[in-house]
Structures are given as structure tokens and as C-alpha cells.
Amino acid sequence: MKKTLSLILASLMLLSAVTACGEAEVKNNETTQTEVDAGEYSADKVTENGEARAHIVVAEGADRLLSYAAEELSYHIKKVSGADVPVVSEAGTDSLPIIIATPDTLPELEEMFPEDMAWLRDLGNVGDETRWGSDGFAVRMHENKLYIFGATARGALNGTYDFIEENMGVLWVRADDDMGLIYDEVPTITVAKTDYREKSPFEIRGWHLAGFSDSNSAVTEVMLGRNKMNTTSRAAAGIADIGFGRFGVAHNMKVLIKNSPAYDPEVDEYWNTYPNGEYCGADSSTQINFFSDKAVEAMAESIIAFVRDGKEIPTLVPGDTYPFIGIEDKENGQNYPYDSEPYEYAPGQFIEPSDKKYQSTVYFSFINKVARKVAEACPGTTIATFAYMFTLPAPVCELEDNVVVVMAPISEDLAYSLYDESSFSNKKNLAAMEEWREITNNIVFYNYYGCFKSGDRYTRPIWDTIKEHLQYYKANGFWGLLPEGQGDDGSSYGWYYKEDGYTWDKENADPNHYLWAMNGMTFWIYSKLAWNPDEDVDALIAEYCDKVYGAASEPMREYYRLVKAGWDAGKADMMMDYAWNTAWEIHVDCFLINDNFEGDPELENLHEKILDTLNTAYEAADERAREHILPIKERMEATVEEFTYEP
User: Fold this and answer.
1) I want to staple 45 with a disulfide (CB 3.0 to 4.6 A). Which of 53, 230, 409, 516 is the partner?
2) How far apart are CA 306 and CA 326, in angstroms?
3) Residue 213 — very low, low, confident or very high, per pLDDT cuts 50/70/90?
4) In 3-state terms, what secondary structure has residue 510?
5) Segment 457-476, tens digit of pLDDT
6) In whole angstroms, what is the distance from residue 362 CA to residue 259 CA?
């Protein structure tokens, strides 16, 4: 009887397809799914022997991001198995339906998975110790249909990528798919993992991809999005189509003042002063006058004109959720006599100029005044600003609710634990974080994980440090992550190494591919920890090496272990805290070719052991893996030749 009914249904579907002038799927207004006989198809097969055994379902008229998720799933299935899995708008009965949805496109999710929906929507609140990102997902098998869904479309996209990783063994490690899309060809794809849900403790997860105007970060962002990153600082059209939001950061104080509707070029009060109190004008000012009510008005009117009136303001982009106000990338300027006097940050409450929090308090009092004016004119608007350099210390004033802080600890010492008091920089930064968390946890962290001069020639083994940072951020309910790095698009790295050290030289510097060649595993681990800071780093290294290097996995694991051993032992020989601009020669002298390693059975001649390990890995690797190993091997060969050569 069931077989007969199936034949009748198949005939009706064929007739409908013919009368619809070749449409591949039935379209109607019914939302109830047809009951499926479990014997008609295997619910655990996506493909079999290179043939499709599933179809992908996205409702007609769904959010563009859901369609993109379906395209990505179909693309990766084709890559892995060779099968063409169709994307349709309604679930059929002849193969496994993989339904990518949100409650907006499939309201039945609320009734089928009420606990999941409640869990996905539980994000916590500002001030809570535990907060969650809004783009979590669930994967469920229900009545022989596979559902990948989120409370948001970005959540459903994340679930799609997770399904690809877990059930096809795919990794995304470089921007170019020919090199960075890692998979084994498997004609039969089995559904091995379902019935789970995940969400990140961070709402914002991404990178500030620094670079030049000719860089093309879009190719990098596709790869990052596949690793569940959701934020970029790049101002470009189309990022929303791949699931990215923009969190723009900039050093733009002067620009915002000079483009304000309230700006009067005849007024000098906006700017810093000379020591005698004479205003020095915009060009000679390192910052603006944070004591000035006219500067407050001009800054607020700039943001209001952008948000409310759609005025074009340089450094701000239409659609920016958090208009950014950033100090210039310089030390604070002078504003005599005001900066030599006690400052009243609240009625009857003063801070002395000698207090280390004085400049920060003056600055955030200025931001508070701007925020209040913006809130009054544009309710619901939140502005963002830096805690950086002289504004890094937590102020003694309170902070308005519509302000997000981007904390940029530029002096961070990534060679040492955040909690190691022997590192002056880390001790100072941790103290600032501890004080900031008493004011707000609406903080996005701008670390320097991908920003260091020697990044094109050294694998910086900071994966354990990143985990420690992110676990601290999670434990305090901090809001997000936007470290600085560069794209993987082949544009200039910027820093050019010569015999006398690094110089900024766009024309002669290496392509930024070298940064990713040397540190790609670190950046991939960061993306994993951004989603789940409790991931096992050793297991991640093993997974990366097994999949990227294949037969060369064991020697490449040894390479990373040796580099980490040199890093851990050599940092004690540094005469100062490690920083983003630590010279390449110090990296070599302390971490690779260190005379103090002599006599240590593991570390003596470390550079030779590293090079031998890379040669062994290269010989063991297949052609694809050699593409990843060769730049590391060549850079190490050049380093050994340069620093051990004796005329």
C-alpha cells in the first residue's frame, strides 16, 4: 500500500512540474510538511557514491543570508562528493530534506523546538557575568528531516558551516579556496552528527583587517565567515550578504569635528594649545580640546547628522550600528590652563591633574556629554570609542549606557600570561581591565594577535595566550573581539625587512600572504576559540596538522612544539616586555638562535632542529601540503643562513 501511495505521489509531482513549465519544485502556500515514509530514503545520507541523496530547502522569499547558506552547503557538498544537491523552496519526499530556516521562514520551529528557540534567544544582559551571541544555532533530525536553524539568519548560516565541518571534515584556513579549502574527496557523505546546539559567548567576533586602499579583504572575509566570524571593520558594500556586520574603528577625532554641521572654522576652541595657552589650530593639534563645550556640540552634531539626516561623514558608513569616535593615533595634546587644574567630572567631584586617571576621566566625560546629546536626538543610538593609550585607564566617572568601549591594549605582552606580574605591560593592562569591568562589560577587545612587524617570517606561538585572554573575557561577560590583523589577498604587508631592521615600505614589502603562511594555524585557532574559548588547543593543533599537512602531520606538530619551546624558554632573555614592534633580531636571538640554549638537550641548536623538522615534513607531504609548508621552510632557511653565517 505504501509503495502504491508513493508512486501516486511521484506521478502527481511529475505532472505539477510539467505544467509549471519546467520548474523543479512544487510551490504552494501550505506550510504543513508531507509525512515521509522512513523507507523511502535514508535519513543519514547526503550523498551516496557521488549521487545526491538529499535536497536543500530554503523558503521562497527567505532572507538572502539563508539562500547564501544553501549555496554554501551545495558548493561544499559538490567539492567533497562530486554530487549536485539541489536547492528548492519546499521539502520533497524522495530524498533527505535539509531545511535551513529561522522562525521567520518556518514558524513551526517554535512548536517543534521550543527549548532550542528559548535557549538561542537567551543572550543575557549588560552587566551579567554570562552573555551570549545572537547567532547561535541548532541542528536537529525530526521526522526524517534535517533542520539547521537559528533565531537569526546568521545563526542558521553558522549552523550550516558547522554541519559542513562536522559531517564532511572540511577546514577553511586560507582565503584562496584552491589552497585553503581543506577536504578529502568522499563520494558518500553520511550525517554523522545531529541533535546539538551551540552559541558563542561573544556577540562580536571578527578582525580589523588593516591594509592599503588596494587591498581586497572580501576574499578573506568569506573564509573568516565560514569560521563563524561575523564582524569586520571594513567599509564595503556586500558584507551583509555573507553574514558580516561592520564595526568601524578609526582615529577620526579631527575629521568628525571638521565635518560637523556645527563646525565653525573661525573658532579655535576645538583644538589643543601651546604651553602658553594659545590655540595651535587643527594641523598642530595631536587631539582635540576635550574640555571644550563647543567641541562637544560639534562632535555630537556630526554623529546626529550622520544617524538622523544621512549626512556623509568621512570614516562613518551608512548602516553603521555603532558610530565610532576615536582618538587620533598620538599622545594627548595640551590644553592650558584647563589641563593643569582639577577637573569636575560630576557635581562637586574633582580629579587632580596628577592622578593617572585624569586624562581618561576628562576624555570619557567628553564622550558622556556627546552620548547624552546623541541619545536625546537619536533615541536608541549607541556610539563606540577607544580605550587606548592615554584613555586606556578606567575613568573615575560613570559611563553612559549608550557607549561601547573598544579596549586596545597596544602594550600587551603576548609572551607572558595575562596574570604574570613580571610583565609590567600585562600587570598594567589587567589592572585596567579589572577596573573597567566595574564600570561596564560592554567592551570589545582590540588585541594585536595579527599585528606584529615580524609576522611575515616568524610563527608566533600565542595560541595558549589567546585562549587565556578569551576565557577571561568570557568570564566577565565582555561583548566582543576585534583584533588587528591583515587580509590574505596578496596586497602589501607594509613592513619591509632589511639588514638594519624593518621599515614601512609598501612597494618592497612582501605580500600579506606570508603573514598567513607563517601564522595561519594561529589565526584558525583564534576563530575556534572565539566561538568556544574552552576548546582544547592541543586537539585543535592536532586536527589542523592532520587535515592540512596529511602525511606530514607528525613533523609539523613537532615544528610547532619546537617553536613554542623556544618562545617559552627565550622570553626570559628579553631585556624588555615583548610588543607588536619587537625587532626581528630579538626574535632570533631570544627564541630561535639563543646562546643560552646551549647545554639544554631540547633547545641546543634549536634552529637546526626546526629546520630539520621542516625538511622532514616537506619530504613527507603531498603536493597540496607542500604549498603550506614551503613558505615556512624557506623563511627558516633564510633566517639560519643570515644569522649563522660566519665570513
Assistant:
1) 53
2) 16
3) low
4) coil
5) 999 999 999 999 999 999 99
6) 23
State residue 508's pLDDT score.
85
> Is a pLDDT exceeding 60 seen at residue 2?
no
In whole angstroms, what is the distance from residue 424 CA to residue 421 CA? 6
- Residue by residue, DSSP assigns 370-431 as HHHHHHHHSTT--EEEEEEGGG-SPPSS---TTEEEEEE-TT--TTS-TT-TTSHHHHHHHH
What confidence tens digit (pLDDT) does each residue in 529-584 have?
A: 999 999 999 999 999 999 999 999 999 999 999 999 999 999 999 999 999 999 99
Residue 335 and residue 331: Cα distance in Å, rounded? 13
What is the reported pLDDT for 456? Answer: 95
Q: What is the DSSP string of 228-291?
A: T--EE----TTGGGGT-EE------HHHHHHTSTT--TT--TTS-B-TTS-B-HHHH-SS--TT
Nearest Cα neighbor of 229 from 27, 16, 531 is 531
Integer Cα distance of 23 and 26 in angstroms: 8
SS3 20: coil
Q: Which residues does residue 485 pair with via DSSP β-bridges, in sequence order?
A: 209
- The predicted model scores a pTM of 0.92
* Amino acid occupying residue 537: V
Tally of CB atoms within 10 A around 458: 22
Q: Parallel, antiparallel, or unpaired: how do β-strands 54-57 and 87-88 relate? A: parallel
User: What pLDDT does 214 receive?
Assistant: 66
At residue 69, what are phi and psi to the nearest 5 degrees?
Answer: -60, -45
In what helix (H) or strand (E) does residue 204 lie, and over which residues does it extend? strand 204-210
Which residue's C-alpha cell is 552547503? 73
Alpha helical stretches, state H, 550-594: 553-570, 584-587
Q: Strand, helix or coil at 55?
A: strand
Q: How many of the other CB atoms lie within 10 Å of CB of 187? A: 13
**Surface-to-core class of residue 363, CB atoms within 10 Å of its CB (0-12 exposed, 13-18 middle, 19+ buried):** buried
Contact indicator for 151, 136 with CB cutoff of 8 Å: yes
414: which 3 cell numbers? 603576548
Please write down the long-range contacts of 457-460, taking CB distance under 8 Å and 24 or more positions apart.
457/497, 457/514, 457/518, 457/584, 457/635, 457/638, 457/639, 458/518, 458/584, 458/587, 458/591, 458/635, 459/518, 459/519, 459/521, 459/522, 459/559, 459/560, 459/563, 459/632, 460/414, 460/519, 460/522, 460/567
Q: What is the β-pairing status of strands 480-481 and 204-210?
A: parallel
In the chain, the amino acid numbered 218 is: A
d(CA 163, CA 160): 5
Q: Are 512 and 486 in contact (CB under 8 A)?
A: yes
